[in-house]
TrEMBL record, chain B:
This is Pyruvate dehydrogenase E1 component subunit beta. Residues 27-202 form the Transketolase-like pyrimidine-binding domain. The pyruvate dehydrogenase complex catalyzes the overall conversion of pyruvate to acetyl-CoA and CO(2). It contains multiple copies of three enzymatic components: pyruvate dehydrogenase (E1), dihydrolipoamide acetyltransferase (E2) and lipoamide dehydrogenase (E3). The pyruvate dehydrogenase complex catalyzes the overall conversion of pyruvate to acetyl-CoA and CO2. Its EC number is 1.2.4.1. Tetramer of 2 alpha and 2 beta subunits. The lineage of its organism: Eukaryota, Viridiplantae, Streptophyta, Embryophyta, Tracheophyta. One of its GO terms (molecular function) is pyruvate dehydrogenase (acetyl-transferring) activity.
Amino acid sequence: MSLSATKFVHPITAPPSTRSSDKPLFSTFFGSNHTKLRFNKPIVAAQRRSSSAASTSSPVVAVSDVVKEKKLKSASNLLITKEEGLVLYEDMILGRFFEDMCAQMYYRGKMFGFVHLYNGQEAVSTGFIKFLKKEDYVVSTYRDHVHALSKGVPAREVMSELFGKATGCCRGQGGSMHMFSKQHNLLGGFAFIGEGIPVATGAAFSSKYRREVLKEPGADEVTLAFFGDGTCNNGQFYECLNMAALWKLPIVFVVENNLWAIGMSHLRATSDPQIWKKGPAFGMPGIHVDGMDVLKVREVAKEAIERARRGEGPTLVECETYRFRGHSLADPDELRDPAEKAHYAGRDPITALKKYLFDNKLASEQELKAIDKKIEELLDEAVEFADESPLPPRSQLLENVFADPKGFGIGPDGKYRCEDPKFTQGTAHV
Amino acid sequence: MLRAIRHKNILPAFSAFRAFSSSAKEMTVREALNSALDEEMSADPKVFLMGEEVGEYQGAYKITKGLLDKYGPERVLDTPITEAGFTGIGVGAAYYGLRPVVEFMTFNFSMQAIDHIINSAAKSNYMSAGQISVPIVFRGPNGAAAGVGAQHSQCYAAWYASCPGLKVLSPYSSEDARGLLKAAIRDPDPVVFLENELLYGESFPVSAEVLDSSFCLPIGKAKIEREGKDVTITAFSKMVGYALKAAEILAKEGISAEVINLRSIRPLDRSTINASVRKTNRLVTVEEGFPQHGVGAEICTSVIEESFGYLDAPVERIAGADVPMPYAANLERMAVPQVEDIVRAAKRACYRSVPLAATA
């Protein structure tokens, strides 16, 4: 079966009304093996010309072609060492097995509420987050379990959080959609799409501020903002692209374009579905990469993150990826074409990495199986830990509303007023 | 192609119901809302629906099931995820006489659009001195569901009801849902219609009058769900169910509670509430939202202002806990009023001695 791109355009013919667009760009968008991008070339080249004409300082370029050419040149050299390969494999397997375990636990009634699983998109999380330092920041959406795991939050803490136990990373108060970890610099976990982007932009702003205003040496933290294709129609996204480029903030906007926002196809919701093009419109590079291939994602991530760290400003990276399961565990997932699902299942990032490791003799079957087993044991232990952990006590209900323990603010001596022995809650001042 | 065929086999919920009209007349809130939308859309071609997943997905909570097939994509619009944008578009359309029904997947998401709800919709009739009325309905689930965390569980009744220019309705039963939604769609003013996700699947008996397509309920009138003489319990949305259960428990202990289903938060039916308190002399208000500046605060003040001499006990206010909704199941249960809380407050109002608070 030839993987012609038109097969994967939304199979339901768009309703015959004002909403469907007849732009030819639609059909050439999908099928991200590079031959398809090559057909895009005239349009991309035109884009490049106009955008570089418009820019004043460094040429702003949509680099899909650049990345493609680099790939061909380095085909003979290996992209990763054995250690790196095993780290990537382990991280993706951890993500995949964890999400499968979540589904099991949900159907057994141990998890509840909304659970949004990440199966199929592991290459994006692993490809990007494994390049970060511990001090770098990650902001995510409700589909955040795997981002938390890649960033280093222990699986047992994430699992107990999902079970709603006091030992969870947010003491059971946040839940599946609100994973926070100060220690690992994971800033959530936001339920509203688009909500995390300004927060991420602010985190990037803070690292630039610390470097330039507070003159902290070595304050070069990079922020990654993960969000999906549906978010790219939201106003907050554009507002932040503008400000990040204007102030040259150290942030990478990572679009996990899995083509679907619950049941809304990206094509039905977006006037121009090529999200990477929106970067140059705001003065930053826009890159389109195959998000089912962790090595390609890694290359792009390296460039974007280093660019941000050097202080050259933001990048918009669109990763073409797919979620194998429905939007959440409550989603019947009836609208997606089975042929589309089968196509992307065939491009499973874990299978692809395995093949690469075997073909280039970087790892053996036994080594990978050993990793699989290790992760399974880790997860069994995490579930046991979560099961045995206590529920939050009644006294915890009213905690953590404010950082200030009694809400009376800070006194002239710089300490909390409630700690001052002479402070009373008595009468008002005259 | 395959999908189009599949859809034609699904009848809109309402017409399926009609076929069995001779048997027991029970209707879920979901069917009630679906049938109300269906009938209003067929009666008036200016009514259209807008929202995320209302069309092809049949509605995020299946409230708009079958409507895309029946009315087509020009009247049932699947929007991109941009609440501020599409709410503004709805308000602008309403300025020129169209009657949009804007769905928010939950009212939490309406915060992204609240500028348009308040500033562009609620205040327009006043600012234009009556030249521009905004016949728009904003509907969607409100309040806590089960285990969905802090950002998905807030109750917005108090926020919207404090704003002049908006009508705020909150149905409980299927009869309420049908009648109030029809009234809202026919209304010339902006209406915020607060449903409840956990009530969608609940079934209620409905009379033949309710099933009639011209049926609608008045706005600003509460309903006395259960008559009583010892204590008045006011509630809206899901809490009405809890209040009725509490009334059953209280009846066994010799306390006859009168349960008022507010139905309309703005305009608030102060006369019904006050008349009831003048009869029973005690008041307990129940709501799911945050306690400070809540609906209960307004009701208590109204009663104190107008019926102070009739009160035999301090007014009791039950609301959700003064914290963002926690995720853990046991904490969530503690953060939302339960039937026992209502029973205890009613007993306190009747001067029975009760333990101060429930154990975990």
